[in-house]
Amino acid sequence: LKKKNTELYKMCIEYSDDAFRVGSNKMIAYNDEKPVRRIRFSLMHELGHHVLNHSGDSRSNEQQANLFASYLLAPRMAIHYSNCKDANDVSHAFDISHEAAENAFDDYRRWHRHVVIYKMSQYDKAMYSHFYNAKKKCFVWNIRKCDFCGKTLYNSLENHCSICTLPPIRTVYETPDLSDQWDDNARILRAQRLKWLYDV
């Protein structure tokens, strides 16, 4: 934006250091120098203003946009099925800031009490249906690729599959154990063989 329209860029920065939206042409500008978690939340917050047709600034609009971003980035049912025990777990599982995770986890506890007492709402049932994977026979709250072999991982907080798990890091003062080296070589060989045989 700074290169394309310096006047609009200056206006955006004066208004907000995180993100800015222009409702008339449905444009969202954001500061790419902010941390990734902040950028994700800011973009979803501004998208919330668009989806909810907000006009003008008000405390109510800001609260609604924050709630929209929170539900989109960490759906309450997904928090439940990811077995998050606290805000730290939510922050790690859904890659959101600790502050956003605390708000999401507090709201999740209210949601959970409501579901236990009154059962799932029609929206909860629709969400469950949307994220239910018949092939995996479970609610899928996270899909990622293994950083090493590219295998698709479902509902995992790790960036690698069980085959590609790295051995523990040794300190400089430890003497090397050849059996560990053999295990590491065997693991790499097994991973390569499976990739060659089954393309996983």
Could you describe the largest sheet, including whether it forms a barrel?
Answer: 2 strands, antiparallel
Please estimate the helix content.
Answer: 40-55%
Q: Name the average pLDDT.
A: 84
* Helix/sheet category: mainly alpha
Number of helices: 8
Rg of Cα set: 22 Å
Strand order of the largest sheet: 1-2
Q: How many E strands?
A: 6
Textual characterization of the structure:
This protein has helices at residues 6-15, 36-51, 59-73, 76-81, 87-94, 98-118, 122-131, 178-198, and strands at 19-22, 27-30, 132-133, 138-139, 143-145, 152-154. The protein is globular. It starts with 5 loop residues before the first helix and ends with a helix. It contains 8 helices and 6 strands. The model has no long low-confidence stretch (mean pLDDT 84). The relative contact order is 0.07. It has 200 residues and is mainly α. The strands form 3 sheets. The protein has a two-stranded antiparallel sheet with strand order 1-2.
In short:
Helices cover 54% and strands 9% of the residues. With 200 residues, the protein is mostly helical.
Core attributes:
single chain; 200 residues; mainly alpha; two-stranded antiparallel sheet; 8 helices; globular
